[in-house]
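Please think about what follows:
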Amino acid sequence: MSLSVPVSTSLFGIVAAEVGHGGRPAPLPSPQATRHDRFVTPEEAHLHCEAVSWISHEFPGWVRVRLVDVNNTSWYFVDKVPVFTADRSRFEARLPAPVHILCRIVGGDDGALVVSTAPHGVEAEDGQCLFRVHPGQLYRHTD
């Protein structure tokens, strides 16, 4: 009897290809995680983006935010204002305005960092949550 092995893919290739505990796919290490010289230890950071439009002004406010990755691809996120900033008044009157998305650095390749917004429940409009960004697009926590 042969079992089919669930395989899922992402922007960066295969992320699960074997069955783990409970019959769910077990994550495989990313290619970057197997190369010690390029692996970045998971770390929290703020990913610099810009709020580009209001979706709703009703409390707590919903905005559309744009992230430009290392390939100059624009990714868009729609969520509540507090997801992107603690200070709604910073961009109440004028857009675009700088905001950030809390993310986790999960790897690195060719001078770029790979970040995930999934740990904080944020994903792009198409469902993507892994992005390759320039190191200068991040503000890292030091506390």
In short: The two ends are 53 Å apart (CA to CA). The mean pLDDT is 75.
